[in-house]
Amino acid sequence: MTASPAASTAHAPTEPTSNSKGKMPPGMVMGPDGKPCKICTAFRNWRPGTTTGTEARERRPGGQNSTAAMMAAFASGAGGSSVFKGTTSTTSNSTTTARADAPPPNCPPDVEQLGRATWTFLHTTAAYYPERPTPTQRANMLMLLRALPLLYPCTNCADDFGEDMKLHPPDVSGRVGLSRWLCERHNEVNEKLGKERFDCAIEKTDERWKDGPMDGSCD
């Protein structure tokens, strides 16, 4: 998970240049074992040739885009869409269709799908967290958040989020505080990518993750 001001040098992903099959594609992320990390890499970079125009524009000069791609994946999903805005895929007749730059429906998730799913879970959990949680509920929420840097499959994302949690301890005092804390962590990543910040007022987070817009379009 990616949310700290800067990833730890010890855990910064590196971009491999070669293997037994020749030069590896830009954007592929190495895991802590020194091998290409599939769950840390966007499908478009694991399977060259699926890169979209949007992704090409997001790449950084000099080929240093593996960290940026991983951050973008966790912050806003594929193709520049945002989990804040709720636009994660192309639709046709209200039916979600597969994207060329995403894994087929029957395949394991890539870093982008995992990131979107994780943010969706965390933001929605915060929206339904009690206004006045009991000591047990607070302790359980803290355990959930502290478990992410230890258990999240993408180790580079997990280490980065863990470093951020040290700088900004979770606020589990109630759903308002927790919703804002998560929103601010998410916004930090979006800022690094030059993306628009989301308004972290509880009215806005509730509209996005709990109640839906006032126009009833989600009812």
State the shape: globular
Helix/strand order: HHHEEHHHHH
As laid out across the biggest beta sheet, the strand order is: 1-2
In DSSP terms (H or I, runs of 4 or more residues), the helix count works out at 8
CATH top level class name: Mainly Alpha
- Under CATH, the topology is which? Four Helix Bundle (Hemerythrin (Met), subunit A)
Tell me the total number of β-strands: 2
Please tell me the overall pLDDT: 73
Secondary-structure map with pairings?
Blueprint: H1 43-46, H2 53-58, H3 66-76, E1 91-92, E2 95-96, H4 111-127, H5 135-151, H6 155-167, H7 175-192, H8 202-211
Antiparallel strand pairs: 1-2
Brief descriptors of the model:
about 220 residues; mainly alpha; Four Helix Bundle (Hemerythrin (Met), subunit A); 2 strands; globular
